[in-house]
Write a structure and sequence with these properties.
It is built from five helices and three strands; from the N terminus they run ααβααββα. The chain is an alpha+beta fold. It has a domain at 4-76: Arc Repressor Mutant, subunit A (Orthogonal Bundle), CATH 1.10.10. A hairpin with a 2-residue loop joins strand 2 (59-64) and strand 3. The chain is elongated. The relative contact order is 0.16.
Length: 106
């Protein structure tokens, strides 16, 4: 069952730009301006994406003077991994059947 918090995580990672931001933040903590330089969008748009990621608990914010630093919080992604794990046997079965079919037809 997907909880409300998990639903927020799935919604947050649905956008390609947000997934790309998570990928960059997995490498290191970054100031918002450095993160924004990696995308061809306005600072306001980057901030909106970061806000969605923060609300889902996927990133944390640290303020140092005037700079805002963002860091990945990977724990909520475990909900996604758990959801995918549930379907793993389905894909394994499908791939095994495809392999058998290809062996029989060659």
């Amino acid at each position: 069952m997907v909880t409300a918090g998990a639903s927020d995580v799935f919604s947050a990672i649905a956008a390609p730009h947000r997934r790309a931001m998570l990928h960059l933040l997995a490498e290191k903590e970054m100031p918002v301006m450095e993160l924004a330089d990696s995308f061809s969008m306005t600072l306001s748009a980057v901030s909106q994406h970061l806000s969605v990621l923060r609300e889902a608990g996927l990133v944390s914010l640290r303020q140092e003077g005037r700079q805002r630093f963002y860091r990945l919080n990977p724990e909520p992604l475990q909900q996604v991994a758990d959801w995918l794990d549930f379907y793993q046997p389905f894909w394994n079965d499908r791939l095994n059947r495809l392999g058998k079919h290809l062996e029989e037809t060659s």
